[in-house]
Write a structure and sequence with these properties.
single chain; 218 residues; alpha/beta; Rossmann fold; 6-stranded mixed sheet; globular; binds guanosine-5'-triphosphate; binds magnesium ion
Length: 218
């Protein structure tokens, strides 16, 4: 019985999804809403100390979560890598892009600078991620009344880069599942999936966490 469970678990393909964008745009809140159905008002800088991941992500500026998802009736495991937006982690976090299947490029509708810096994040992706990585432009905090970036501007930017666009609110749980489903569908179309254990940071980082992180992972 146990054996057949392990066999079927192993056959579930993996998509590696990375969230990137400026600090404070709400990347962690988006993931927390998606994986834990919760939201917190406080901003805790992502620095890689998420309790469950401490053995393999400390000092990395990246936190890890998993969630199963059915994409067009096929069961997939999402490996979700939440990067730190603060500049001091950029060398380490960018090393997490290289095997990403999909990247959520996030900015906040209430923070004009975070929108203008999407171009910077795209350059990072072009430099460090696979050429065929799937991308989705995600506007966050669309519940806020003090809007600094219009929906039209978001759409226009996404069109410029030939990627899809979605406005979300982790606080009000708006379009959060839809954002992850959209990137998962893009990845499924592109075929950029992994087998269990293939290039998996959780295995590679367990003993030599810092060294392996510096080499790049996920
Ligand atoms: N109103 C509102 N606030 C949000 C939303 N999402 C996040 N926030 C708030 O924005 C702040 C920053 O959220 P985080 O998710 O920690 O931001 P982050 O992008 O992960 O930041 P770094 O880890 O520093 O890169 C927190 O105070 C959140 O409560 C949202 O949808 N609506
Ligand atoms: Mg964070």
């Amino acid at each position: 019985m146990q054996k057949s469970f392990e066999t079927s678990a192993k056959s579930v393909p993996i998509m590696k999804i990375v969230t990137i964008g400026d600090s404070n745009v709400g990347k962690t809140a988006l993931l927390t809403r998606y994986t834990d159905s919760s939201f917190t008002e406080s901003h805790v800088l992502t620095i890689g100390n998420y309790l469950l991941n401490i053995t393999y992500s400390f000092l990395s500026g990246v936190e890890f979560r998993m969630k199963p998802i059915d994409v067009e009736k096929k069961r997939i495991t999402l490996h979700l890598w939440d990067t730190a937006g603060v500049e001091r982690f950029s060398a380490l976090t960018s090393s997490f892009y290289n095997k990403a299947s999909g990247i959520l490029l996030c900015y906040s509708i209430s923070d004009r600078v975070s929108f203008e810096r999407v171009t910077h994040w795209i350059v990072q992706v072009q430099q460090f991620a696979r050429k065929d990585v799937c991308k989705l432009l995600v506007a966050t905090k669309c519940d806020l009344k003090e809007r600094r970036v219009s929906t039209e501007e978001g759409k226009a930017l996404a069109e410029r880069y030939g990627i899809k666009f979605i406005e979300t609110s982790a606080k009000e749980n708006k379009n959060v599942d839809e954002a992850f489903m959209a990137i998962a569908q893009e990845v499924k179309k592109s075929g950029l999936l992994y087998k269990e254990g293939e290039g998996d940071a959780r295995h590679r980082l367990s003993s030599k966490a810092k060294i392996e992180t510096e080499k790049g992972c996920c």
